[in-house]
Amino acid sequence: MSLHSFPKTRAFVWKKDRLLLLDQRLLPHQKKWAACRTWRDVARGITDMVVRGAPAIGCVAAYGVVLAANRKQLPQAFDGLLRARPTAVNLRWALERMKRVWEAGGDLKREAAAMESEDREGNRRIGQQGAALLASNAVVLTHCNTGSLATAGLGTAFGVLWAAHRQGKIRKVIASETRPYLQGARLTAWELQQEKIPFELITDNMAAHFMKTEKIDAVIVGADRIAANGDTANKIGTYSLAVLSAHHRIPFYVAAPLSTVDLSTAVGDDIPIEERSIREVTQIRGISIAPKNTKARHPAFDVTPADLIAAIITDKGVVRAPYTESLNGLLEDR
Asked: How many CB atoms lie within 10 A of CB 227?
C-alpha cells in the first residue's frame, strides 16, 4: 500500500504564509477553503468545527503556532489554541511538542510539516494492522468521521476500512449518520463514495436492529482521547455502540495513533467532555427542528469503558487488555 495511493481529499494545506482549511461544515454540497493568516483564525476554525478530528486538530494547531511565531505572538497562541477544544488530547500533545521545539530554538515550520508527515505514515500503518483483524467478505459498522477529513492522511478507523477494501475484504460498510452534527451522513458517506467503498447509511438508533437481524463482523471507531487504562473518549454515541456490540458478541475496535493516548489521564471519568451549542441539536443548517425555547443538551463525546474494547489499533501495533500495561509498553518503546 503506497503513500501515493492515499485519498486525494485534504482537510488542510499549508501554502506559503497561510493555512488553508477545507470548511467541513459545508460538505458534501460545497467545497470551500478558509484561509487562516493568524493563530486566532486557526483557533476559531478548530472551535467552530471548520476542521475537526483529533489528529487533524493537532496538525492544524501546530501550523497555528507557526503563524503565531511569524507575528511574535507565541505565548498567547499556546494558551489560546489549547482552549479551542478540550477533549481531543492531540491538540495538547501537538502544542507541547511545538513548545519544546520553540524553547530549543528549532525550526517550527519544519516541525509542523514533520508532524503532518508522521500522521500520514501512521495512518498507513493503522490501516494495514487493522485490516489484518478482518475476515473476508466483512460487514463493518463505523461511527462519526475518521478519514482524510479528520487526519493528515488516510484516516484511522476509515484507514482500516480503506486498506481492507483494497485487499478485497469489505462486503459493505454501515455508517451511522452521527447526530447531532451529522458527520457520518455528511462526511463519512461522502468519503466512502469518493473511494468507491460499498456502504449503507443508517440513523444512529438503527444500530441495534441491524446487529440483531444482519451479520455485522466488527465495529471500528476512532478516538479523541484514550486514558491510561484504555477507557476511550469518542464522538457521542460510541459508548452505546460498544454496549450493543458486547450484547451481540461483535468485536468493538478503536483505531487511533499513539498521540491520542494520554497516560496522564488515569481513567475515562477524568477526561473533560466538551459541551457544545444546543443549536447543533435543535437546528440543522440553521433550520429549527424543535419548538422555540426547547432546552437541550449536547455533550460532544462519551467515554467507552476499556472492558468493552476488543483491541486498540495504533500506528505502533495492536494492543489488547490489560491496556494499562499494553499501552504503556508501546509508549515506552517509542
From this structure: 25
d(CA 334, CA 9): 29
Spell out where the chain has E strands.
Answer: 12-15, 18-22, 33-36, 138-142, 170-176, 199-202, 218-221, 225-227, 232-235, 252-255, 261-262, 283-284, 287-288, 301-304, 311-314, 317-319
Point out the residues that are catalytic.
224
Tell me what pLDDT residue 8 has: 64
For the 3-120 domain, the top CATH level (class) is mainly alpha
Q: Is residue 55 within 8 Å of 259, Cβ to Cβ?
A: yes
Start-end ranges of CATH 1.20.120.420 in the chain?
3-120
| Cis-peptide, bond into residue 75, ω within 30° of zero | no
Comma-separated ranges of CATH 3.40.50.10470 domains in the chain: 127-333
* Second CATH level (architecture) for the domain 127-333: 3-Layer(aba) Sandwich (3.40)
CB 113 within 8 A of CB 14: yes
Q: How many CA atoms are closer than 13 Å to the CA of 257, on its beta-carbon side? A: 32
pLDDT at 332: 80
**Residue ranges for the chain with pLDDT beneath 50:** 1-4
Residue 57 and residue 51 in contact, taking contact as beta carbons nearer than 8 Å: yes
Q: What is the Cα–Cα distance from 90 to 57, expressed in whole angstroms?
A: 7
Put simply, whether the predicted model's pTM sits higher than 0.70 gets the answer yes
